[in-house]
Amino acid sequence: MAAETVRGAAVRCAEAARRMTEPMAGTSAHATRWLCVEQPGPWGVDALRNSALDTGVAEELRRRAEGAAVRVVLLRRPGRHRPSSGGRNVYLASTLPGASWLRHATVSDPRELLDWDLSAAEPAVGELTTDPLLLVCTNGRRDVCCAVTGRPLAAALSALHPGGVWESSHLGGHRFAPTALVLPTGYSYGRMDVAACAHVLAEARLGRVVTDNCRGRSAWTKPGQAAELALRDHLGDRAEDAVAVVDQVRRGEGGWDVLLRHRGVVEWRVSVHQRPAPPARPHACGLLPEVPTVISVGSLEVVSPARSA
After folding, report:
1. Given phi > 0 = left and psi -120 to 50 = alpha, else beta, which region is 294?
2. Tell me, what DSSP letter sits at residue 239?
3. N or C, which end of the chain has less CB nearby within 10 Å?
């Protein structure tokens, strides 16, 4: 059985997850830095390898990015795919609270990226930009749900926010398509529509976080992502750098205590648990159904005034 079926018709992974109201908190990709490279045209399952980008450049860029703990995604303008004319846009972002930034550069040849020091605290490349970006995954070769739902969404948003929205290669979590990522903060979203994305982008410009349909901040591990969102909702604090993950301690099988710092003043301990969530459904289109695990949050309690850093 390759996918869930209803009356003999295959159900795409995103529809199956939506019907089961699978929770999304704690499902974002984990990355403290993102390198986003404009690469028009089609992308394959592994976009960096399977695109018109020079293979040698792609492999060397992958190697250097992995060594610097940087996640690489490809970008293209929403709408009809056209060959690149002139320079290519490149963005480099840090998603760490208190140290988040977004730099933009234009390169005439992707080989120029091999001269970038991706491991530097803040590489001296391009220029800092204060305008947030919204990336919408449209990598249909990776999962058809991303193309079917993501491309129309990106096109509609681009008409409303020219230059602020890009189609992106795989962001993770196709079963939550359409998915989106905000840079530089690194907050990831799922099951989005035009109004929800426009709201997320408007709030990001004001330095605020939208927690509805949020999967988590990529700077944190999955337990940290869920704990942070739960504390934000508990306190009603939407300032983008108001909450930081300080530590997490494993508690038995599938459990953690996550220590959070709120506005540098109070520390909270949030209990987080991972559990199976039957029934089985496909994690991605074309895969056999499996029972997913989801992250849930238990208690939230004040631990102490924040210790000195």
Report:
1. beta
2. B
3. C
pTM of the model: 0.91
> How far is 35 from 118, CA to CA, in rounded Å?
9
Average of per-residue pLDDT across 206-227:
98
Q: Which stretches within the chain are classed as H helix?
A: 13-19, 55-67, 144-160, 194-205, 222-235
Pairing status of strand 187-189 against strand 214-217? antiparallel
d(Cα 154, Cα 242) in Å, to the nearest integer?
A: 29
Q: What pLDDT, on the 0 to 100 scale, is given for residue 145?
A: 86
Residues 117-143 have a mean pLDDT of 91
SS3 (DSSP) at 247: strand
HSE-CB at 258 with a 13 A cutoff on CA atoms is 31
Contacts of 95 (CB under 8 A, 6+ apart): 31, 32, 33, 34, 183, 184, 185, 186, 217, 218, 219
For residue 53, the SS3 value is coil
Banded model confidence at residue 143, pLDDT cuts 50, 70, 90: confident
Query: Which residue in the block uniquely carries the two structure tokens 């648990």?
Result: 273
